[in-house]
Amino acid sequence: MCGIVGIFGSAQAAEMAALAMFTEQHRGQESCGMAVSDGKVIRLHKKMGLVKEVFNSDTLSHLPGNIAIGHVRYPTKGSATEFNSQPHLVETLYGPRYALASNGDIVNYRQIREEMEADGVYFNSDNDGELIVKYIVREMESRDQSIIDAIRHLMKEVKGAYSTVLATRDALYMFRDPYSIRPMVWGRNAGGVVVVASESCALDILEVQQRFEVPPAGIIRAHNDGVTIIENDPNLYRTAQETRHCIFEHIYFSRPDSHHFGENVFEVREAIGRALAKQDNDLEADLVMPVPDSSNFIAMGYAQAKGLPFSLGLIRNHYVGRTFIKPLQTIRDESVRQKFNLLPNFFAGKRIVLIDDSIVRGTTIRQIVELIKKGGVKEIHLRLGSPQVCHPCYYGIDTPTREELVANRFALEEIRQRTGVDTLKHIDINDLRHCVGNGTEYCYACFNGDYPIRDTSSADQFHECIRS
Ligand code: SF4
Fold first, then answer.
1. Which residues are catalytic?
2. How many whole angstroms from 451 Cα to the centroid of ligand 1?
3. What is the pTM of this model?
4. Between 3.60.20.10, 3.90.226.10, 3.90.25.10, 3.30.1440.10, what CATH number should domain 2-242 receive?
């Protein structure tokens, strides 16, 4: 999971990009970076750390220009090092000419990289963004293709999820994989500045009123000549007839104030809560409580449907970071204890419905339940806004291996016992499909193993395909 931004047509492109990146900080906290073009030179600044740590007025003053792209990274492929952080800047004989940042994972990365290395292309990182930009530059320079044709060629050969921004010296390009797995929205503010981002909340902060989805397999070019939208037929580049947006963006990853895939994220979460409540006609409880923050709206939907009070009994320390997306087990466990505390004298004798978005490894929720029990709670009924996560994600989300997923290690009743709750239920996958307008246009592979894109040259994915 990462966040991308792009700005075209403002003398304050770097400042605008920094604000947008800050708004997308929830999508990645390990590193961030920005590349800015002043029409002659593209300058790059990237480092490990949060946007506020890496960028300040001094660093931004060294990034003049009216085209900027930015990235916040959470590592899914490649280690958490500066080499793997984005954007990637490609030097040519004429100097640095192309900078690119991307969100999503390439499933046939290994095969494409080996082919390119055999062709003499050198890689500095293990990162998908570097592969994408070098693929495009190779197509342009060695096969004399236009940048648009090079991107189309990439869409044919390079499989996976990519919501991508590419800056040249005089233009900003944005393009998206044919399945539109990760979100990507763009628009123009009242002054005509073009802004693109992973999530619409980044457009809100820049007061961009007009906004649109980047179409599946679409390529958009912003240049002094104007904005050109190239709507390629996505079915030329994919096997399924429809898009496969990541349903987990609605359940957990995206901010509730974002709108993408045609839906308000908070409304999808409320619908998930209502669907969960429908399974609990006979359940009696005193209150509904989320594991904050991603489950807040799911819990609200549940509480409204059941006519129960909604309460925030768990208080979250917002400065710890998101537990699920810390890459190391040691850090993850430590974070849980630092992250939550109980309201004093609140839980004694109460029967609570505890709402969370998902169970992945099962360690976080077990520790949260332990903590709540210390408050003297009478009953805990745990409800999950996703079906059981049984399969890894290959499209840009850091899920653990199949073997590490708790749903593959224990039966549901065993998970309930290990978690220490009185009852445990997940949303049904068919109910989840009805929580969005067009449920057939989503990916549910981590629940049902129905992967829209498969790379059978990868041993892991081959075995996963056989199993599913
Ligand atoms: S496998 Fe799961 S997390 Fe990955 S894109 Fe599909 S729905 Fe999203």
1. 2
2. 9
3. 0.93
4. 3.60.20.10
